[in-house]
Amino acid sequence: MKIVVVDGQGGRLGRLLVEEVKARLPQAQVYALGTNTVATAAMLKAGADFGATGENPVVRNVADADGVLGPVGIVVANAILGEVTPAMAEAVGSCRAKKFLIPMNSCGVAVAGVGELPMSAYVSLAAEALAAELKKD
Predict the structure, then answer these.
(1) Shortest CA distance to 43 belongs to which of 84, 79, 89, 8?
(2) How many beta carbons lie within 10 A of that of residue 53, not counting itself?
(3) Mean pLDDT score across all residues of the chain
């Protein structure tokens, strides 16, 4: 099972997602795809199995992913201070995998109806939903 985690900036969210996914789905191969090298390095340190940085790795690896996790900005062109390219956003948004997105104000997107929770709570909810989804298959 191929799980893709996409993150940018310092990779804090991606690090937490990798740790949570590895704890819940130890058999999964986790791909850490950073919009920059700092984010990729943080996710690899957290235990991701593979890591790569930039637009092409995101575009190529989400295509056959079983699940994609990251901040809501990964489906919004030019989000995360411009780190998410239009090609990245399109690839993530149109891939066949179910997306488990964390609402982040820094992405320039407000999700109506979503309460203010600590990032760790969102990470736990996303990993739990991913595990439940993959167990259905």
Answers:
(1) 8
(2) 18
(3) 94
